[in-house]
Each structure stands twice: as structure tokens, then as C-alpha cells.
Amino acid sequence: MTLRSFRICLLPGDGIGPEITAEAVKVMAAIAAAADVRFEFHEALLGGIAIDHTGSPLPAGTLAEAHAADAVLLAAIGGPKWDTTDPSKPRPEQGLLGIRKELGLYANLRPVRIFAPLADASSLKAEVLAGVDMLIVRELTGGLYFGARAREDGVAGSATGGGAGRRAYDTMEYREYEIERIARTAFEAARGRKKRLHSVDKANVLESSRLWREVVHEVARDYPDVELIDQLVDNTAMQLVRNPAQFDVMVTENMFGDILSDEASMLTGSLGMLASASLGDGTALYEPSHGSAPDIAGLGVANPLAMLLSVELMFRHSLAMSDAADALAASIASVLDEGYRTRDIADAGTAADMLVGTAEMGDLVVAHL
Ligand code: NAD
């Protein structure tokens, strides 16, 4: 067997970042020993810690490491130490937005999966959540958030009177290639799952949505094995709480995806369990959805599972290690099935000896691999 070698850029960042990164490294080392792979870890600075050491939230060296890597694993950045409203001061978030932009990450993937033992953490009834396992593919660099916008003060009123005052507008614009590449990302992802893709738009009202729908159907010709369903965004918002199990993969434009992925994330009820992947044409970036949790940093109680689920995504989407991804997902599910919980996912029924810290949770995942 040939030994495959992967270069991983680690960005531990701030707050609980270094603690959960240590667990990711521990689990990846255990997987490397069992599979025919070798991981070469290159740690770099991003966010607050990068400001402290270099004055910049995204030093040039970090960007070079990211470009040179097979994948980037980012924990979290930010904290009260660097909070400022002074626009001349660097902020940690600039590092995060900067690296996404520099790597050209146009597709954001967010899996939403219900781990049965945690179903009670959701605000929805457990029977509605049964079988929920979806992937939201959000377009990340186009649409309303990047279109032309302006604001005018003192606009004159119409001829019929009234309407004078301030005016503002934003533009939702999509080009064919932007829709085509995100559609391909989604179809490919659906191919590796249950082969069902919901394309979400507002084609009954918006011209950009009509182009979206047209292009998605053109791309669909290359994926005859994937079932394609068009759904209007308002209906999707309703279906996500009515019957979320109908979704396998969902693809949508930037703003719709921003709103729907936050809605869907609440199906799980737990921030410590949500991972995400951002893909482009080059190196992809993987990160938990939560922040740096400065309130619990250094206490050894942070939940490392969202970080480990980000590693699972990295195995699937960047390293072609789907067996290892399956094994990692199964291991996490077993640990939860046995009743082990970090503080954030514990409830009144969690026995004291089942309450574990960050490192212990990582050890349990390794032991169940
Ligand atoms: P947060 O996600 O850091 O924390 C919200 C709450 O969830 C806190 O009570 C925290 O203790 C808890 N929590 C989060 N992750 C957890 C984990 N893995 N295990 C256990 N508990 C966890 O959000 P916030 O408090 O709004 O922001 C804190 C800092 O993080 C801010 O500086 C913010 O800008 C930054 N932030 C960074 C990212 C990122 O790096 N992608 C995302 C969101 C917020």
C-alpha cells in the first residue's frame, strides 16, 4: 500500500480554539495510524493571537501556509480583548473574512444531523426530527451581499407628491458561471449521499432566481442519477420546521442560505455540534460553526465535537477519505449513545460520571474508532 501524505494547515485562533484543535490533532493522529495516511501539521496564526504577535489578523505567512496546504482546519477567532469600534484598529474577524476571500471559497456546506440522544436539545418535537440528516450548500461570494448598493439622502418626492426622503437599495445579481459552479458542488455532494437535491429560489418573483433555476436544470443533465426538486424559499422556511427529514442536499443563493442554514442549525439545538466546510477552486477550509467561547476558554470544558465533525467533512471533501469519515462519525455517535456529554450538551438526566471535559471527550472518540 502506498502511504498518502496530507499537509494540513491548523489555525487554532483564540479562546477555546487551541483546546479543540488539540483534540482534532489527537483524533487525526489515531486515524492516520490505522489508515494508510500521514498528516503533516503546519500551525499558523489567525485572529486575535495573530494581531498580538504580528499586528495583523491575517499575516502573509498564514496565507502562504493556507495556499500550500491540502486543507485548512480553523477553530475559532475573536474575544473581548480585541473588541473595538475604532475603525483604524485591526479586528480578529478581518482575518476570517480575509482568508475566505483570499482562498476564493464560494461554496459553504453545512451539515445538519440529529444525533438521536440529543434530540431533546431541540425546540422541535423528537418525532419531527427523526431521520434528519441534511446538507445545506450556500453560495458564498455572490448575490445580494455582494451586489451594487447605494444610499441617497434628500431624494425628491414623486410627481403625485409624497415619498420624499432617504432612499437605499441593494442588488441581487448572479452570473451564469457562479450558479453553475455552486450547482455542480451540490450535485456532486448529492451523488455521495441520498441523491436528492432541493434547489431553493424565488423564481415566481425574482429574475435572478429564474436564471438560477434555468442554470441548475442545465447542470442537472450531467447528473441524471440525482433527483432535482425546485422549491420556493418561503415554502422551504416552512418545510424546515414542518418536515425537515424530506431534505438530503439543499442548494441556494447567498442570503437565502444565510437565513435557512441558521434556521436549520437550530433543529439540532446545540451549537457545539455544528461543523462547516467552505470550498472553492483551491484549498478548502473547515471550521466549527461556533465562536471562540471566551467565557469557558482555558477551563477544559469546551465541546470538541463540532471541531471533530469539521475533520469528518475535511476527510470527505478534501482528502478522499470517506471510510475514515464514516468511522469518525460512527465513533462520535457511539460516544453520545453511551451517554457521555460535555457540559453544553448535558441535561438534568446526565449522571456526574458521564460529564466529561474536552480532552476526555477526544479520548473517548479515539477509543471508539
Ligand atoms: P460563541 O459561539 O463563542 O459562544 C456562544 C455560547 O456558546 C457561549 O456560552 C459559549 O461558551 C458556548 N459555546 C460555543 N462553542 C462551544 C463549545 N464548543 N463547547 C461548549 N460551549 C460552547 O459566540 P459568542 O459568545 O457570540 O462570541 C464569542 C467570540 O467568538 C466573539 O469574539 C465572536 O466575534 C467570535 N466568533 C467567532 C466565530 C468564528 O471564529 N467563526 C464565530 C462566531 C463568533
Please summarize what this structure is.
This protein has 369 residues and is of the alpha/beta class. The chain has helices at 17-34, 48-54, 60-68, 92-102, 126-129, 176-191, 207-220, 233-242, 254-265, 305-317, 322-337, 358-367, and strands at residues 4-13, 37-43, 71-76, 107-113, 133-139, 149-155, 165-170, 196-201, 227-232, 249-252, 275-279, 284-288.
Overview of the molecule:
The protein is of the alpha/beta class. The chain has a domain at 4-116 and 269-368: Isopropylmalate Dehydrogenase (3-Layer(aba) Sandwich), CATH 3.40.718.10. It has twelve helices and twelve strands. The strands form two sheets. Strands 2-1-3-12-11-4-5-10-8-9 form a ten-stranded mixed β-sheet, sandwiched between helices. A two-stranded antiparallel ribbon has the order 6-7. Helix 7 (207-220) links the parallel strand 8 and strand 9 (227-232). Helix 11 crosses helix 12 (358-367). It is globular, with a radius of gyration of 22 Å. The two termini are 21 Å apart. Nicotinamide-adenine-dinucleotide is lined by residues 16, 76-79, 96, 271-272, 287, 290-296, 302-303, 306, 344.
